[in-house]
Each structure stands twice: as C-alpha cells, then as structure tokens.
UniProtKB/TrEMBL annotation:
This is Rrf2 family transcriptional regulator. Signal peptide: none annotated. GO terms for cellular component: cytosol. GO terms for molecular function: DNA-binding transcription factor activity. It comes from the Bacteria. Pfam families: Rrf2. PANTHER family: RRF2 FAMILY PROTEIN (PTHR33221:SF9), WINGED HELIX-TURN-HELIX TRANSCRIPTIONAL REGULATOR, RRF2 FAMILY (PTHR33221). SUPFAM superfamilies: Winged helix' DNA-binding domain. It comes from Peribacillus loiseleuriae.
Amino acid sequence: MKFTKATNYALHTMLTLVTASPAKPIGVQQLAESQGVSPTYLSKILTKLVKAEMIESISGAHGGYRLSQKKDDITFLDIIHAIEGTASLFECNFVHGDECSIQAVMTEAEGKMQSHLRNTKLADLVQKQP
C-alpha cells in the first residue's frame, strides 16, 4: 500500500500552513520551494485542498494560501481524502456470495488505519515539535 506523492506534499503543505500566522497567507512559490516541488504541480494539490474547504486562496500581491478551518480540526484522514479520494484500498474481484472472508480482513485493517488517521490531527505534530 502506498500513498501518492501528492498526499505527501499535501500533508507537508498543510503542516506549514498550520504553523503559519493566519494573518499572512503563504504564496505557492514559497510553499513549493520549501518542498522542492514545482509551483505548477503544487498548485494542483492546493486546488484540491481549497475544494475540500481546508484552505482558502487569497488573491492579490500579498495573497497566497491559509487555513480556512481551525487547525485543531484538521486530521490526517481529511487531507488524505482530499487528495486520494475515499475509495477502499482493497476490493475483492471474485464472487463469493454475500461475504468474502479476505475482503472482511482487509476492510477491518483499513478501518483501523482510518481510525488512527482520523484521530491524529496536524496540530498534534505542532505540539510535539521543540
């Protein structure tokens, strides 16, 4: 199982925005340079985060991006769903009737992972940093 690079960049971008002052939006160029990614690629990721209403885009010379939610409300799972979608990681391709025992194990494992990601907030990381 592997998340895309877009999710990696989204998580790091959101961590940057969580630690930033809400009064001063951060430009895409600065966000991109801090991660060593092209501004064009990061813009596509930022668009998904705006669409998910996690951040907002501020126009103008002093524009950029900032959180649109309280930082204590943003979970890892929210960010992953904004980038990856909400489809299940595993789907059985065989017809077993009502219940596939393999699908049941995979669904349970995914549920546990989602629970952990839902209960882990970006603000938790900020509190752990020195």
